UniProtKB/TrEMBL annotation, chain A:
It is found in: Cell membrane. It comes from Oryzomonas japonica. The keyword Cell membrane applies. It comes from the Bacteria. GO terms for cellular component: plasma membrane. It is a multi-pass membrane protein. This is Formate dehydrogenase. InterPro entries: FDH_cytochrome_b556_subunit, NrfD-like. Belongs to the NrfD family. Keywords: Cell membrane, Membrane, Transmembrane, Transmembrane helix. The chain crosses the membrane at residues 20-42, 54-80, 92-109, 129-149, 170-195, 207-230, 242-266, 278-299, 311-328, 340-365. The keyword Ion transport does not apply.
From TrEMBL, chain B:
GO terms for biological process: cellular respiration; formate oxidation. This is 4Fe-4S dicluster domain-containing protein. [4Fe-4S] cluster 3 binds at residues 84, 87, 92, 126. It comes from the Bacteria. Gene3D superfamilies: 3.30.70.20. GO terms for cellular component: cell envelope. It comes from Oryzomonas japonica. The lineage of its organism: Bacteria, Pseudomonadati, Thermodesulfobacteriota, Desulfuromonadia, Geobacterales. PANTHER family: FORMATE DEHYDROGENASE, NITRATE-INDUCIBLE, IRON-SULFUR SUBUNIT, IRON-SULFUR PROTEIN.
Amino acid sequence: MTAAKLVINEIKGYHRFIQLMIALTGVGALAALARFIFGLGVTTNLNDTYPWGLWISFDVVTSVPLAAGAFTIGVVAHVFHIKKLEPLVRPAIITGFLGYSLVCIGLLLDLGQPQRGINVLLYWNVHSPMFEVSMCIMAYTTVLTLEFLHPVAERFGWHLPLRLLRTLEIPFAILAAMISTLHQSTLGTFFLIAVDKLHNLWYNPLLPLQFWLSSIFTGLSIVIFEASLVHKYMGQPDESDLLATLTKIIPWVMGVYIAVKAYALAFLSHGPLFDRPVLLALFLVEMVIGVFVPFCMYLTNRIRTDKKLQLRAASFVLFGLVLNRFNVSMFGMEQAGQQIYVPSVIESLVTMGIISAHILFFVLIAKYFPIFEHHPEATDYTIPDHFRKLEKGSEGLKAAHEA
Amino acid sequence: MSGGHIDFNKTKSFLIDTTKCTGCRGCQVACKQWNQLKAEKTVFFSGEGYQNPPAMSEYTFTRIKFRDYQKHGQNEFAFYKEMCMHCNEPACASVCPVGAFKKTAEGPVVYDEKRCIGCRFCMVACPFGIPKYEWSKAFPLVRKCTGCYSRVKEGLQPACATACPTAITYGNRADMLQEAERRIKSRPDRYFQAIYGKEEAGGTSVLYLTHQPLDELGFKQVTKRPLPSYTWQALRLVPGIFLGVGGTLSAITWFQHRKERIRREEEFKNSRVKPEQKEEDQ
Ligand code: SF4
Ligand code: SF4
Ligand code: SF4
C-alpha cells in the first residue's frame, strides 16, 4: 500500500464531523489562494472606508484572546503551583499553538504585501502597536512551538529534548505570561489611535487593561469550554473537579474587569455615550449576556460540581468576548450614516476554514500524540535526570537540620 | 516617526483660503499630471453636488469638495480642497510597524513604499481619512498626497499650489499662521474665526480659512492633541510591564515551590522517622 492510500484509508475511518472539517479547511485554503491570485480588492469587501474587516476583527483581534488559555493555565498550574491542574495544561498549549499559528496565517492573508512581512524585523518602529504585536506574536508562536514539542518528544521517546523541555517548563510559563500580557493589552492600544472614530462606549485610555483582563478570564473559560467538550465528544476523562478550581479564580478576574470598565465609562470617556441606539444595544448585550450573567453563574456554589453549568458559563464568556472584540474593532468604528460593511463570501470562507482547521488539527493531534494522557497517575512529572534527584537535596538539608 | 528635532515654524505649509477658491479644480488636474495618476471614470452627482470624483482614491490625491448653501435667497457654492494635512506629528507614521511614513524637516509627510507591508493601520489611524489603498492590485500599496516632496526638496512649490490662481499660499508655517491671523483680523465678516489645522491633531502643515463654520463645510472635528500621544501613553509602559510581570511571576514561582519543597521535606522526615520508632516499640 502506498503512503497516499494509507492516508486515505485513515481518513475514511474518521468521524463524519472530522471529514466535514477537512472539507471546510480545504475550501478555506482555496479561498485563500483566490485572495492571492486576484488581490484583496476583488475578493474582499474591504475598501477605503473599511480598511480592516473580518480578518482583522476575527482572525487577529478575537483569535488572540481566544488562544489565551495556554498562558493563563500555565501561570495557574506552574507559577501558582496548583499541581493538580497539570492535566489541563497540555490541551491548552495545543490550542494556543494552533491558535497562534492560525493568527499568523490570518495576518499574512490580510497583509497587502505578505512577502515583505519580514520588514517588521528590519525596520523597528517602537511607537507602533502593530510592531509590538507582530514581534510578540512571532516570539510567542516560537515559545508555543517549543512547548508543543513536549508531547512530540514524549511520543517518539526523545529523551534529551524532553529533559531540556521539562527543565524549561516553568521559565517558559513565565515568559509566555510576559509576552502575552504585552500583546493581549496592545491589541487594545491599537484602537487608542482611533480617537474620534471608536465610539465612547468602548473608547477610553484603559482599553488595553480591559483587553488584558478579559483575555485572562476568557483564557481560563476556554480551558473549561474545551475540557467539557472533549469529555463529552471525545470520550476523554471528566475533569470537572479540576475545572472547579478554575471557576473559583475566574470571578475574581471578572470582578476586576467589571470594576475597571465601570470606572472607565464613568470617569474617562470623553463624549456622549447614549447617542447611538444600535451601539448601545450591542454594548448592553455584550455586558449583560457576555459578562454579568456568566459572572453570576461563576459565583454560585453549584458550578463547582455542575458540569453543564460550567460549560454554559464558559460559553457565555466566549460569546461576550467575541462580541466585545467585534464591537471595538468593527461595529464601534462605524460612523453614523456610513455604509455598513458585510464580509464577502471569500472572506467568510477563509475565516470558516481557519476555525475548521483549528478544530481539525486539535482532534488529529489529540489522536496521535499524548495530549490527554498527561495525568498524575500515568505520568511522572519529574525531570528524567539521574544527576539531580530530589532525595539528595533533602537528605543534605536533613543533615543540616540534625547538625 | 517624526523626529523631535523638526522646527514646526520652519516646515513648509499650505495656507488655503477657501473664501478665495473659485472651484476651478486646477489643483486637482495639476496633481494628477505631476503624480501621473490615472483618470477615474465617474458619473456626475455621484457625490455631493458638483463635486467629482465622489471621493479621494488611489488615483486622486486631492479633490475639491463642493458644498451648496443659500445666501440671501441665492444658491451659493463653497469649496474646500481636500488633501493630506501633513500633520506635525502624524498618526500614520506613529502606527506604521515598519516606519514607512516620515515627517520630513521640509514639511511633507512622505511614504517609503519599499518598506510597507500593507497592514493598512495608517488608514485606520489617520484622523482625516487620507491614505488610500490600491484595491485594484494583487499586491497593493498605500497612496496619498506626497506634499510634492520631490519638488519642495528642490526649492519648488507643490504642483497644486503653483497651479492655483487665487487661494493657495505656500511658505513657512509660522509665516502662514501669521498671514492667516492677519486676514481673520482685518476682515472679521469675511472669515469664520478659526484656522483649521493650527491645532487640529496637534497642528498640521495645511491651514484653512473659511467663511462658513467648519462643520458646515464638512471639516472633520478632530482632537487637538497629537494622535501619537494617545497610543504612546500606553506603549511607553511596555518595558516596565514586561519586566514587572516577569519579576512578579518569578517571585511567586519561587515562593510557591519553596512552600512545596518544605512540605515535602517535612513529609520525608516524618515518614523516615516513624517506621523506626514503630520497630522500637514492638
Ligand atoms: S493627514 Fe493623515 S495621512 Fe496625512 S500626515 Fe496626517 S495622519 Fe498622515
Ligand atoms: S499599510 Fe504600509 S504604510 Fe500603512 S501602516 Fe501598514 S506598513 Fe505602514
Ligand atoms: S501637494 Fe502635490 S501631491 Fe499633494 S495635492 Fe498638491 S500636487 Fe497633489
